[in-house]
Design brief:
By secondary structure, the protein is α/β, with parallel strands linked by helices. The chain has helices spanning 22-25, 47-57, 104-114, 130-141, 159-174, 213-223, 225-233, and strands spanning 2-7, 29-31, 36-41, 84-88, 95-100, 146-151, 178-182, 195-200, 203-206. α4 (130-141) runs parallel beside α5 and α6 crosses α7.
Amino acid sequence: MIRSVSLTPDGIDAARYPFTIPAIRSLTTLELHPQVTLFAGENGSGKSTLIEAIAVAAGFNAEGGSRNMRVATRESHSTLHEHLRLVRDARPQSDGWFLRSESFYNLATYVEQLGEVSGYGDVPLHEQSHGESFLTLALERFWGKGLYILDEPEAALSVRGQLALMRRMHELCVEGSQFVVSTHSPVLLAYPDARIYVLGDDGIVETPYRETEQYELTRLFLDDRERFLHHLLSE
């Protein structure tokens, strides 16, 4: 499990990606919650870049999967992982998984080619909908006492699916697991007592749930949809 993530400045070229991203450039040390840490922020804020680098630094394949999987279709990850230092805690870890939404199709194909059946349910992943396969992974393959790093898992999930994922996260955390998640979802950001970091032009700021933009915009929309849309669509 991961106690903290630090950026080591040696050899960094501030003029090159990903260090041109304000939040990445300002990274020093982030203390992670022992159960659930959530990264939020606008598109391009660096949250997926950061979570991908944490996963690679923790020993996972850049395209996702368990530590034993080595799917390689197109190398697209940054060099950020080379400059990260992870401080571990003493909890035993017997499982782990990196879920990267954009490469999950390739991962499902790899699992199918290997003939893997244990932990993936009775129906092949490619014969399920995108959301169903995501939930199958969490419900059937996440075995507990593990480090689970998820990059925007809500991309494939309905609201009901997001709630089901949250329930599964809770069950696994009770058993000693840790989740590190990047998300746009106001539902997942509501996970009780999670540590939320918002990435933006001001760096990386720990932020209470009700002060996140995801919560605030969703609340404004639901409180008065007509008024919200009137201002949004007016000339």
